[in-house]
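User: Is it possible to get a 3D structure for a protein together with its bound compound? The compound here is adenosine-5'-triphosphate. I've pasted both below.
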Amino acid sequence: ATKVNQQTKTEIETEVISDIPRKRIGLLGGTFNPPHLGHLIMAEQVCTQLGLDRVDFMPDFQPPHIDPKQAIDAKHRVAMVQRAVMGNPNFGVELTEIKRGGKSYSYDTMVELHKRHPENQYYFIIGADMVAYLPKWYRITELTKLVQFVGVKRPGVKVHSSYPILWVDTPEIDVSSTLIRDKIAKHHSIRYLVPDPVCEYIEENKLYGKR
Ligand code: ATP
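Assistant: Yes, that's possible. Here is the predicted structure of the complex:
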């Protein structure tokens, strides 16, 4: 009787899982300090070229690789990401790393997301500069089994990867958050380099020393 019950339970579980629509979700992890046109263009291209259901922008709480003091408060980065994705039905925001706090290891995040949505398939989007760092990522071998990495070229970055990467051809955009912060420091315009609502948010909150 136990065996039969066991079998029935497994069948029911399988049935329940297969009833949930399977989604192909792109994840664009980053510090978004601040988000810029490079992020939006790459996300839109990957989403449409791979036919994903959507791309979620996933701000980290604390990137494992840089000095946390360099990035502005998570609350501002989240607010800017929300404004950046506004109005595009292909885009969403994933706040798992912000809610978890601490250092944002992608492996921990993917274990959490897979537990929550075992039916989903995840495409982890990274710029070419990140590809070079993959061997240093926490539990990278296990992580490659949880996600499909998607690579996007970045000007001036040559890449070779020992991990499987699905490359998507997008226009190379020579914009970075560093460039935006530098422009603000020099009192140059950042209009058209970041979406208008992000530009307004930076001005209203006087971020990065913006006057
Ligand atoms: P910073 O200049 O502060 O290092 P960033 O512009 O690289 O920031 P992140 O938020 O760290 O922005 O980037 C998130 C992800 O998007 C990373 O995988 C990064 O490689 C990628 N990315 C950012 N800008 C571009 C771009 N212009 N072209 C391709 N990939 C990009």
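Residues 2-19 form the longest helix (18 residues). The pocket of adenosine-5'-triphosphate is lined by residues 30-33, 38-39, 42, 126-127, 129-130, 152, 154, 173, 175-178 (CB under 6 Å).
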